[in-house]
Task: structure prediction
Amino acid sequence: MTLQEGKQRDALLASYGFGLFPVLHYQPARRGEWTIANHLPAVGDGYLTRAVVEERVVLSRGRHVWMSIGLLEKESHAWHVHCANGTVVTAGLGLGMFAYAAAMKPEVERVIVAEIDPDIIELMQQSSGFHSWPWREKVEILQVDALAADFADAVKAQTRGRSVDYLYADIWPNFPAEEAPAQTGVMARALKPRAAGWWGQELSFAGFCRARQQRLDEAGFRAFFAENGVPVPEVTEGYLRFCRDLMAAYRLGSKDTLVQRLRNFLAG
Ligand SMILES: C[S@@+](CC[C@H](N)C(=O)[O-])C[C@H]1O[C@@H](n2cnc3c(N)ncnc32)[C@H](O)[C@@H]1O
Result:
């Protein structure tokens, strides 16, 4: 971890109670339509933090960027890495960033990755030196469509009946994907994990609060997840603060009338 990465991890941890996580190094590689490239330092935004100068590892399909390991991906995955424990299932391998970070946690026993595209599986393994990851033995990669009927059976064959402690869904190139809450609900109904989440959920949640004139608090979070059939993780005050700060940063704040704002203020 560089000095800059260490400061970013500590800043997130101090503000919200969960920090950044270790990331891999990648060799440039190409397979089918997909490429992994290391980009020179440039200015870009994080998920919450604005305007950082950083090198990025970029995964593209043709000319279309699917993800790049920079502060945006790290800040938007940090909560899910924090929630990972016991048996973890993640939908969408990408660069294996989440799978690696989750496997590095002592409280995670195994990470099962569901990935639809065999080329991505080959590419990530080749580029990241998968076979020599420190906790390689915790990680299993399945080639399966996480939205298909055989997803749960494929996972069950690996867990041998053990329940899933955390499901993290990230199968979309953009956030917040409109279909992400409902599709995570489909995966959660199939797998029945104890808790789940998806990439960009904070912005979907902020949009839900705005549309419903709902306060951004734990009750609102529970209502939003229940509506989509997604089991909630243990929500901390720090995480709700993270959601509120994102809501403000993306200007997704509620359309409260003056009277409603005053009521909210008086209710504390
Ligand atoms: C943005 S990447 C995931 C990044 C990953 N979270 C990481 O930490 O590196 C999205 C991945 O989802 C995969 N994908 C898309 N649709 C899928 C589906 N229905 N089932 C499983 N994987 C899918 C894509 O091929 C791609 O590898």
